[in-house]
């Protein structure tokens, strides 16, 4: 798992978005960013989390925060997921898991009692200067949005 901690500069990246072409993290300086890594489009936990971000859009806008969802799924999969659930934020594709790895969102985890390599559900709050305010690994889908919003204050 990454040694990225609160207070560290957020590693910059450019990833393909299902809605807005490529998105570069550093181009969002001046705004807060909630970067959340999730395992897979159209799965129960990931759908709950994405819809929770969608439903909290007004609160996030009041905090001038940008939400970016990241998974290894393809842009085509992201587009279907966004359309099916009317998501109002970009989904980024990281097929080779490079950005996941930079943020400690890929590594060894326990599933059904066994150690496996996989995506670790992670939420990162980045301040307007591009510094990590908070990074939480192994977050639960339900309630993770409220915790991230509380950290924007």
The total number of structural domains is: 1
**Whole-number average pLDDT?**
91
- The proportion of residues in beta strands is 25-35%
Secondary structure tally, helices: 5
Number of strand segments: 9
Low-confidence stretches: none
| CATH homolog superfamily | Glutaredoxin
Question: Biggest sheet: strands, sense, closure?
Answer: 7 strands, mixed
> Which H/E pattern describes the elements?
EEEHHEHEHEEEEH
Distance between the termini: 27 Å
Which strand order spans the largest sheet, edge to edge or round the barrel? 2-1-5-4-3-8-9
Structure, described:
It is a single chain. The longest helix has 12 residues, at 44-55. The chain has a single domain (14-152), classed as Glutaredoxin, CATH 3.40.30. Helix content is 28%, strand content 31%. The strands form 2 sheets. A 7-stranded mixed β-sheet has the order 2-1-5-4-3-8-9. Strands 6-7 form a two-stranded antiparallel sheet. The radius of gyration is 14 Å and the shape is globular. It has 5 helices and 9 strands. With 153 residues, it is an alpha+beta fold. The chain starts with 13 loop residues before the first strand and ends with a helix. β1 (14-17) and β2 (21-24) form a beta hairpin. The relative contact order is 0.25.
Summarize this, please?
By secondary structure, the chain is α+β, with helices and mostly antiparallel strands.
Structural features:
153 residues; alpha+beta; Glutaredoxin; seven-stranded mixed β-sheet; two-stranded antiparallel sheet; 5 helices; globular
Helix and strand arrangement:
Blueprint: E1 14-17, E2 21-24, E3 32-37, H1 44-55, H2 57-62, E4 65-71, H3 75-85, E5 91-93, H4 98-102, E6 106-111, E7 114-119, E8 122-126, E9 132-137, H5 144-152
